[in-house]
Amino acid sequence: MEFRIPRNDDVMVYDRFQPMPGDLQQAVAMLAGEAYRDDEVINYFACGRGVSGITRYMEILLRVALRYGWVSVVHNTVGEPLAAAFWLGPGQTSLPLWYQVWLLLRYGLGVTGLRHLPRMIFDLCALDRAHHQAMLACGFDHTNHVYLLTIVTRADQRKHGLAASIMQPVWEACD
How far is C-alpha 64 from the chain's CA centre? Predict the structure, then answer.
């Protein structure tokens, strides 16, 4: 059975067939940068560069989701993103090495700089290895699961059900 990206009227869905406009990509990455402002792990991967570094890091995740999955976005009436989720579809949890290297060189250098690049590569490989070991240990079969990379909501819009409106159609499709 082929998996179809779930859609509903309240959430816009972008993928490689429905491209996300560049200005919206930047706004969604900034939304995620703000949402992870105080996250120690993401700040570590952003080399302590704060929201600007995290935003750059989130641009990388956004590009991954747009190429190998989809991005769900809830907009306000003037088109600003209020909440977003980055998804990978079934069978898409292992990215090709060439694409990871390209992303790191194209976008990651802007976050890490040359000085921190070796540490970033080492840490991302260690994280990826630990992630795959954990998936194997619990019997995770990536070929028939949807993977949520991240979900964020603008601070002043939390507790209004926006994340649930993004996740509900995916839960239903997965069930």
Answer: 7
